[in-house]
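Structure tokens please, single chain.
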Amino acid sequence: MEQFTIYKALQLLTGGVVAYLLGSIPSAVWIGKSFYGIDVRKEGSHNAGATNTIRVLGTLPGLFVLAIDILKGWVAVYLSTNVFGSFLRDWQWLNEFSYYSLSIAIIVVVGHALPIFAGFKGGKGVATMLGAVIGLFHGIIPFVLAVFILTFILTHYISLSSIMAAISFPILYLTSKLWLPKNDDITLPMAIFSIIVALFIVWTHRKNIKRLLHHQEPKFRFKRTIKVEKKKN
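Here you go.
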């Protein structure tokens, strides 16, 4: 059995630090301030995410923010499974490997929600969580995205689409062996994580849920819908 050393512990710790720093990259804030002189956290829904960026700045910067936020989650998981924590898999410490990868996914989302580079005031983490989940759950992600897209087409609510996709995630994973023969065996750590993801997304959208119940949630359009004046430096 391979020996676990202080060096290996530091290697794992470095992976966690890198994941947090990746998550802390406040793409919406930096793009808004650098190119438009606007802090998106002070406009619209006050959320530093792609949806609010589109509402405040427009489609192109919003899609750019979306791509960066998804990439942050995916890169963090990729590094954890192929660089910092790869020795756990090589040693056949598969349970430890799974827990480490899942921990990295949580850390990168925490970094997005509480970014050190933006005064610990970030976004909800849906896109970053999506990137992490893409890196961890390959087989069912297209079906989760299908739930999101179908809900959006029917309602034009990004928030409701995110909530429905999140709720479907653990259900699809836990039942995947019934309809996805090539899926890997369902493991307890991954099952727990899928449930945590669903609860996290629903919790971060609690204000949206209240607005939906009171018919006050704005429908999403692929265009700038909030007029703000460009701030002068």
